[in-house]
Every structure is written in structure tokens, then in C-alpha cells.
Amino acid sequence: MTSSARVRVTEVVAGVVREHEDRLAVEEPLEIRIETRQGPIPLAVTMRTPGDDVELAAGFLFGEGVVRSRSDIVTLRHCRQVPADRHDNTVTAQLAAESTVTATALARRFTVSSACGVCGLESLAALEERGLRAVRSTPVDPGAVLALPGLLRTAQRTFERTGGLHAAGLVSPSGELLCVREDVGRHNALDKVVGWALLQDRLPLHHHTIVVSGRTSFELVQKAVAAGVGVLAGVSAPSSLAVQLAQRFGLSLAGFVRDERFVLYAGELMPAAKVTAAPTECAPVGKAGPTPALTRNRR
């Protein structure tokens, strides 16, 4: 299956009408199944962009606490025990015994949309009960953070063709872009990246950075913390609960990373990045006051 599809469209620009071919991001359902002694059981259905499905399934299983390491996965592959038209849309996981019990004991089956991920919200305390622990503190290098969107953009090949996909990228502590994945869903793109790291036996991702092309939600922070990531950066805003979660688990969280600017919502800057706070003043009615900002001292 391909990640983009051709369509005929009518475009209107400044009153001029023209017909031409365009490309759209593909969105298809992916069912994730767990192999048991009684046969495969459905665990989740997610709407995703085809491609890197095995990584997506691995990342999803890890993010939901079904597996904790690469050794918990015996096999993970597209299923052939379904009608032919569903071969590419079904992945079956054979897990170690304990993980299989965890999967089958889930009280509900997940139905995931490309917009919001797994429906429902766990409390912060519930995440700790599930085994999430604080990540290793990673101070933020302003220069490295500001370079992230451009680094991610250079690897968004399907976005180049369609303009309609989210992306997540994994960056090493030395600044090397290790993995980029795209999807119609933010959470799917991140699951693909985490799944890649899991299958490469690279977890936990201490002091690594993940950059995402949109806003940072509670769910994305949860997945980053589970993977042991040190810094999560997004080109848009985080939610209030995402900030609370990041602060609670020690994740450095940056938002609005674009145009030589970012806002740090959790974590600290590197000691070398000394900052000064611009004064905040009350502006007269009808005039905009100065925006509080953090600026790096230049010597």
C-alpha cells in the first residue's frame, strides 16, 4: 500500500478556475491483534497512513504497557489469516506469556482515530501505578531546539507530496536525526518512531529528543515519558495536562518551536544558555505591550 493517492481536483485561485491532479495522504484502518492459545484476538483499530505498520503496532503495544522490551515480542507481522483485502491492514503480535496475559486482560478494546488517539484519559496517578517513572533530566540547548523543525522538515517526503501529514523525529544526544515517521495522526507518527526504537532494542531513550510537527498533547507526553525521552519539542502549543505530566515526570517540554523562538514549559535550559527576562509592562489601551521573552546573552 502507498502513503499517498492521486485525485482530480478543481482549484480556484483569485477567481481563476483550473482542474488538475493532486495527491492526498492515505488513511486506512489498521487492526492490531494478539495471538493466544485460543487464536488471535483483536486488541485495537487505529486509522493510520499505511507504511511502517509493524513499527506502529510495536510502539502502540509499548505505549499501552502491553510490552516493556524487545524480548516481550516473539513475532510481529502482517496477518494472512484474514480476507485478502485486509492483509495489509492487519498486524498480529505473538508475545511472551506475561505480555499476552496483560493484553488479554485489558478491560476494553481500543478504537483509535487519527485525530485523538486512544479514547479515554488516565490520571497522572494511574500512569505511575502502571509503572511510568521519571525520565533522566535533560537540560535544553536553545540552538539545538531551534534547529529541530528544519531537521524534521528535510525528511518529510510524503508531506512534500501531500501537505497533509504529521511527523515525529528522533534525535540523538549528539544531534543526529535517527528516525522520522509520518502519519495522518500525531500519535501514530510517534508510535512508529518509538516502535522503531523498540525493535532496534534502543529503549530507553535517555537524553534523546523527539520533535513533532504539531501540538503536544497529554498522550504524546505520555508516550515520550514511557520511552524515556529527555526532551519533547513541538512546533505548536502543548495542552495544560501535557505540561503537568511533563513537569511531574521530569520531561523537558518545548512548544512553539519556530521562527527562531520557542517556549519552555517544563525543564531547564543548559547552564551555558544564560537568559535574561524582558521586562513586562502594562500597555496603554489600544497599544500592544512588549511580549515577555527569554533571550540568550551574547558576548
Could you explain how this protein is built, in words?
With 299 residues, the protein is α/β, with parallel strands linked by helices. The chain folds into two domains: 28-124, Ubiquitin-like (UB roll); 142-296, 3-Layer(aba) Sandwich (Cytidine Deaminase, domain 2), CATH 3.40.140.10. Helices cover 25% and strands 32% of the residues. The protein has nine helices and 16 strands. It has helices at 53-63, 97-104, 124-129, 142-146, 148-153, 157-162, 186-199, 218-226, 240-249, and strands at residues 4-13, 16-25, 28-36, 39-48, 73-78, 90-95, 110-113, 117-118, 166-171, 177-183, 209-212, 231-234, 252-258, 261-266, 275-277, 294-296. Strands 5-6-3-4-7-8 form a six-stranded mixed β-sheet. A six-stranded mixed β-sheet has the order 10-9-11-12-13-14. Helix 1 (53-63) packs across helix 7 (186-199), helix 7 runs parallel beside helix 8 and helix 8 runs parallel beside helix 9 (240-249). The longest helix has 14 residues, at 186-199.
**What is the subunit organization of this protein?**
single chain
CATH topology of the largest domain: Cytidine Deaminase, domain 2
- Strands, total number: 16
CATH class of the largest domain: Alpha Beta
Percent of residues in helices comes to: 25-40%
Question: Radius of gyration in whole Å, from Cα?
Answer: 21 Å
Helix-strand sequence: EEEEHEEHEEHHHHEEHEHEHEEEE
The overall pLDDT, averaged over residues, is: 85
Tertiary shape? flat
Largest sheet: 6 strands, mixed
What would you give as the CATH superfamily of the largest domain?
Answer: Cytidine Deaminase, domain 2
